Recover the amino acids of this structure.
């Protein structure tokens, strides 16, 4: 009897928990007399530190540059937590657009949720600025005339890290893949790139999202004998797998190397340099590269207490470009602004001469970086040594390659 | 090369079984605490995961703020969490004993949300690194796998704690008082034993076990506000399968399910995080009181 009660209660509790957090989506008066920006991301789970409130802070910084006003009307920013659930994400997007007068949706990490939201914004002809999600499908077969994929994608990560590691002699690969849209795409894109560079695949194992113990997957990777163990996962999952790989002596033999295919600076910060040192990664942004990036990041740090990830810096850049396009177009309806955004080059601290393709892909330079050893780092956040700049045209797929049907028009 | 077992090389199988045992150690420690609390207090302690997380955070804070290392944390963190448990029991839980189980469950669930929310607000979700203590770094090459010394230690420590708790409750005089107090508190009180204090101390002991599991977990996982909620649902399933309030059941099921989960990760990794719940459903259908429970 008690057992039944408990099992039932456990389920109820889960649902209550979900409902409680879902209720926090803010909803305020609706008015066409403003530009309303909705930052939708994971604010409490394993991806909260790479985007989360930081993306909202970045969006606010962009709005402040315009004096929080555009064409004489106020800019308002609202936030919500999608809890990494596609149904919750698309429901919030729908409610925001239909009832709350939100004009643009920003960030949305977790490719699964982003793909669902992209359906909504395509339908409603609203702008969707994607910094968090990775899957290249968002500017490929799932592209939208009003969707913009901004900071990075699985294709760029594959080209950057995949190619570089094969060239260094890592010619056999084993994948540890997060078992959902993003992981699958990252694995597929990287595998293609590895094969193109002359490497081969030894195997792959799929782990559930938000796994706390990777030891058995790592053991399988270890016994596969592959030279490169590639982590096709993100956020908390990447942190845990790197930490446990070091515990199980994966790289100690010198025969195997770890490749974090998607590593954010927040992950490195959480891991500490002694564990993360020498990992090679691809990023769209590093705060300590030039004066402009340093100045902006310093400002961000003063507001938020952490240095920006590429997702957060990208949110700033995308929102800023969006506002500039409204200013130029004089209206804020989706298709018109989207066309304007694609006409104008992106020039800010994040991207120099960034170009937006017909499929919504913002093409900008990416960077191959190595995590510094503790002895090389001058202090907190001094984490990366940039090895190479990957020109945008090399990092991202062309419209034809992407498989986006919009290109036909 | 030796042959294979169901298409899996035996080395891989042994490795996974050993890992299963390690995970099972955490399940056993946590479900033990839950079983003790439920057995003696009839409270379904939903805050268990949050208190486990708290144990990990206390040891992290001890290390980073006060420079107190792992071995002291192993003693201090469970005590601090236990004291927190005393406060929780005295101020809140003790008011609910006369009511239905459901109230205790809702109260502790609410506490769990608040504790987790507070830590999330203060420390973010990516978690904090906690180094493995010097003496337990490195590992042994067992031939079929590389076993980190620390994980070996976790299995040993959890076995010692589980066995001594079982002995304390089933074989000692104090344990006999405790068991008698759950059967008939009025009568036991009439013999001059302070039952409310015993109940408080039992709760403190149960949550201290969660705190201890937290300290043991800190060097393995990131010390993160979410670590408790990631684990607690599985642990509840373990307790349900083992039989509510059965201490032996909780411990054996903890280790057993760890092993089974390990096997699933070899044969069908995608199912590894639901296998426990499938088993729970089956057990509830066949033996609703759990494998080791008795019908009340």
């Amino acid at each position: 009897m008690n057992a039944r009660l408990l099992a039932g209660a456990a389920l109820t509790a889960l649902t209550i928990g979900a409902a409680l957090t879902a209720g926090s989506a803010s909803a305020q008066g609706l008015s066409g007399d403003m530009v309303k920006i909705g930052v939708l991301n994971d604010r409490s789970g394993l991806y909260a530190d790479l985007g989360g409130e930081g993306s909202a802070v970045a969006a606010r910084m962009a709005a402040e540059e315009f004096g929080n006003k555009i064409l004489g009307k106020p800019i308002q920013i609202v936030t919500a937590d999608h809890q990494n659930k596609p149904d919750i994400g698309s429901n919030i997007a729908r409610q925001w657009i239909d009832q709350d007068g939100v004009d643009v949706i920003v960030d949305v990490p977790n490719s699964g949720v982003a793909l669902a939201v992209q359906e909504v914004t395509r339908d409603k002809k609203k702008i969707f600025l994607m910094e968090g999600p990775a899957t290249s499908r968002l500017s490929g077969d799932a592209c939208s005339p009003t969707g913009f994929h901004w900071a990075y994608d699985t294709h760029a990560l594959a080209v950057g890290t995949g190619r570089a590691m094969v060239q260094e002699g890592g010619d056999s690969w084993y994948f540890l893949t997060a078992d959902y849209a993003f992981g699958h795409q990252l694995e597929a894109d990287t595998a293609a790139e590895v094969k193109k560079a002359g490497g081969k695949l030894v195997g792959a194992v799929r782990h559930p999202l938000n796994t706390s113990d990777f030891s058995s997957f790592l053991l399988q990777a270890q016994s596969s004998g592959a030279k490169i163990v590639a982590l096709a996962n993100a956020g908390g999952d990447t942190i845990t797998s790197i930490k446990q790989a070091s515990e199980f002596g994966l790289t100690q033999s010198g025969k195997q190397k770890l490749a974090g295919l998607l590593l954010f600076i927040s992950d490195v910060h959480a891991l500490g340099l002694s564990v993360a040192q020498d990992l090679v990664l691809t990023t769209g942004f590093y705060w300590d590269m030039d004066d402009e990036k340093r100045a902006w990041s310093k400002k961000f740090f003063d507001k938020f207490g952490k240095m920006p990830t590429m997702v957060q810096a990208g949110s700033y850049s995308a929102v800023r470009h969006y506002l500039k396009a409204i200013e130029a177009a004089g209206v804020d309806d989706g298709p018109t602004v989207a066309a304007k955004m694609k006409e104008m080059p992106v020039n800010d601290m994040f991207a120099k001469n960034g170009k937006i393709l017909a499929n919504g892909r913002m093409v900008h330079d990416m960077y191959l970086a190595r995590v510094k050893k503790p002895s090389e780092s001058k202090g907190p956040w001094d984490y990366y040594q940039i090895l190479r700049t990957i020109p945008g045209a090399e990092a991202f797929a062309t419209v034809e390659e992407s498989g986006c049907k919009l290109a036909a028009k | 090369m030796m042959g294979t077992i169901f298409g899996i090389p035996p080395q891989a199988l042994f490795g996974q079984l050993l890992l299963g045992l390690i995970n099972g150690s955490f399940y056993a420690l946590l479900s033990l605490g839950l079983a003790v609390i439920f057995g003696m207090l009839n409270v379904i302690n939903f805050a268990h995961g949050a208190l486990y997380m708290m144990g990990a955070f206390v040891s992290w804070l001890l290390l980073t703020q006060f420079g107190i290392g792992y071995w002291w944390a192993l003693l201090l963190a469970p005590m601090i969490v236990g004291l927190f448990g005393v406060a929780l029991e005295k101020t809140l839980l003790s008011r609910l004993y006369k009511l239905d189980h459901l109230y205790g469950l809702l109260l502790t669930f609410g506490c769990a949300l608040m504790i987790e929310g507070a830590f999330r607000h203060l420390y973010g979700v990516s978690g904090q690194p906690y180094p493995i203590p010097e003496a337990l770094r490195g590992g042994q090459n067992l031939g079929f796998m590389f076993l980190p010394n620390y994980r070996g230690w976790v299995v040993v420590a959890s076995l010692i704690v589980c066995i001594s708790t079982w002995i304390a409750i089933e074989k000692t005089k104090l344990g006999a008082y405790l068991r008698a107090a759950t059967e008939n508190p009025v009568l036991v009180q009439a013999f001059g034993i302070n039952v409310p204090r015993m109940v408080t101390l039992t709760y403190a002991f149960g949550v201290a076990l969660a705190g201890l599991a937290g300290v043991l977990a800190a060097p393995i996982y990131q010390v993160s506000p979410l670590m408790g909620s990631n684990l607690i649902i599985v642990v509840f399933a373990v307790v349900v399968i083992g039989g509510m309030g059965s201490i032996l059941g909780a411990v054996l099921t903890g280790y057993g399910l760890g092993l089974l989960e390990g096997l699933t990760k070899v044969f069908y990794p995608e199912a590894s995080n639901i296998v426990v719940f499938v088993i729970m459903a089956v057990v509830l259908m066949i033996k609703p009181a759990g494998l080791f429970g008795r019908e009340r």
